[in-house]
């Protein structure tokens, strides 16, 4: 059988398995293993299964082993642990409380504080889903209690939660860097300005929304003194310190991303115990949750690594590159098509699943056009970020819906999300049109 045909059939099989809710890790690994076995078995033209066992086993186990023993992959459990420990030490939530104290007297101030809190949470944890879940439990009930419109209260947190995809550290950037063999340090820096630009856009959306309809965000009548504001700002110093360690350390060449993660975990643990917010029981719970979350990510990464090796065996990627080259679309048309593919997949699949499924085909295509892989990584992550709040799936929307229950039906959350999606699209277009937005900080690291 033709390896290219087997490769195309394998892609279709993976999509079918994902459609029937087979876990992405098992779908990728199973399809890649069976398909590779078929290629090796038919190598001589006749079916010889005995000659396919050894090379198939070698492909599966060697790729899984190499991935698990990858030095770069070690930063995933470190950053996941950092998020859990920082949350239990109340470090991640102090940014929100500080922003709320300073902004509560402004129209829509608590919603703005929620978005800023999500940005601060993201700068430490690197997980959009965890950000939406945690901040949703803190911010949304408080805004609803203050009389905020449910659409504004829920959509601001759902959208703010997506900032974890761009603002470093980002698990998606780590996975992208490993599979494309690009610098994770550079990827982290490349996400800073687009992330801050998105954060500013979300705050602007809230300001305009409330300006046009003041009734959706009653202003708090509680007056806060200057001393209380300064005390709230000082209380957020651990989060600022961790951000400086991660971003400043990497940008200044003091740490690699892995070293920054390790130093941040140690600093967070020390601060938590010193401030008596962290207990040994809470630390153990953080470790257990880290192990569970890391294992899930590692299984997906291993399945993806096996699938990438299988795709290289089939020759599907060169075939697609040649086909696109023959058509000869411009870079603009190519990027529009890629964006549409990611936006379509983002309506139905989770971000990690989309990334590991598409990168084996997209990267050779992008490289054939001579495009910068760091810039393309930011574009991909931004597209995946949009997918987190795009109907009908919108993982962050469903997370917020589970948090608030009947107080805000899911259709109301999606109704509010539309305004934030418009900002996401504008930022995406700016990133695509002006690559310097993504590449400015990585270029400064040289």
TrEMBL record:
Its main location: membrane. Residues 11-435 form the TRAP C4-dicarboxylate transport system permease DctM subunit domain. The keyword Secreted does not apply. It comes from the Bacteria. It is found in: Cell inner membrane. Pfam families: DctM. It is a multi-pass membrane protein. The chain crosses the membrane at residues 60-83, 95-115, 152-179, 191-211, 231-251, 295-321, 327-349, 361-380, 386-405, 417-441. Keywords: Cell inner membrane, Cell membrane, Membrane, Transmembrane, Transmembrane helix, Transport. The keyword ATP-binding does not apply. The complex comprises the extracytoplasmic solute receptor protein and the two transmembrane proteins. Part of the tripartite ATP-independent periplasmic (TRAP) transport system. This is TRAP transporter large permease protein. It comes from Parasulfitobacter algicola.
């Amino acid at each position: 059988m033709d390896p290219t045909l087997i490769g195309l059939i394998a892609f279709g099989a993976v999509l079918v398995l994902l459609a029937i809710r087979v876990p992405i890790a098992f779908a990728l690994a199973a399809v890649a293993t069976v398909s590779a076995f078929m290629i090796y078995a038919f190598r001589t033209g006749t079916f010889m299964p005995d000659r396919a066992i050894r090379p198939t086993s070698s492909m599966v186990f060697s790729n899984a082993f190499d991935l698990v023993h990858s030095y770069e992959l070690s930063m995933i459990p470190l950053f996941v642990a950092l998020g859990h420990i920082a949350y239990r030490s109340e470090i991640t939530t102090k940014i929100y409380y500080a922003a709320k104290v300073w902004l509560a007297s402004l129209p829509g101030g608590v919603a703005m504080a929620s978005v800023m809190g999500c940005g601060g949470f993201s700068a430490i944890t690197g997980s959009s889903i965890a950000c939406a879940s945690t901040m949703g439990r803190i911010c949304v009930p408080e805004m609803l209690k203050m009389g905020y419109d449910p659409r504004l209260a829920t959509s601001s947190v759902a959208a703010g939660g997506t900032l974890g995809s761009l603002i470093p550290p980002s698990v998606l950037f780590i996975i992208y860097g490993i599979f494309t063999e690009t610098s994770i340090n550079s990827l982290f820096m490349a996400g800073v300005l687009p992330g801050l630009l998105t954060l500013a856009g979300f705050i602007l959306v809230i300001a305009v929304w409330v300006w046009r309809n003041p009734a959706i965000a009653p202003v708090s009548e509680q007056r806060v003194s200057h001393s209380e504001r300064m005390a709230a700002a000082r209380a957020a110093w651990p989060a600022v310190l961790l951000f400086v360690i991660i971003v400043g350390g990497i940008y200044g060449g003091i740490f690699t991303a892995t070293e920054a993660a390790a130093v941040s975990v140690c600093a967070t643990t020390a601060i938590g115990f010193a401030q008596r917010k962290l207990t040994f029981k809470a630390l153990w719970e953080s470790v257990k949750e880290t192990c569970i979350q890391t294992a899930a990510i590692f299984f997906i990464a291993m399945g993806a690594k096996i699938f990438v090796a299988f795709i290289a065996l089939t020759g599907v990627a060169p075939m697609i590159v040649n086909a696109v080259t023959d058509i000869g679309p411009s870079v603009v048309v190519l990027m529009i098509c890629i964006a549409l593919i990611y936006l379509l997949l983002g309506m139905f699949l989770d971000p990690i699943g989309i990334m590991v499924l598409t990168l084996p085909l997209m990267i050779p295509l992008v490289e054939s056009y001579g495009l910068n892989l760091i810039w393309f990584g930011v574009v991909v992550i931004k597209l995946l970020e949009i997918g987190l709040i795009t109907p009908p799936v919108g993982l962050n929307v469903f997370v917020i819906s589970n948090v608030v229950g009947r107080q805000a039906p899911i259709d109301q959350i999606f109704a509010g999300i539309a305004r934030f999606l418009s900002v996401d699209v504008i930022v995406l277009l700016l990133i695509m049109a002006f690559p310097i937005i993504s590449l400015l900080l990585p270029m400064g690291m040289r």
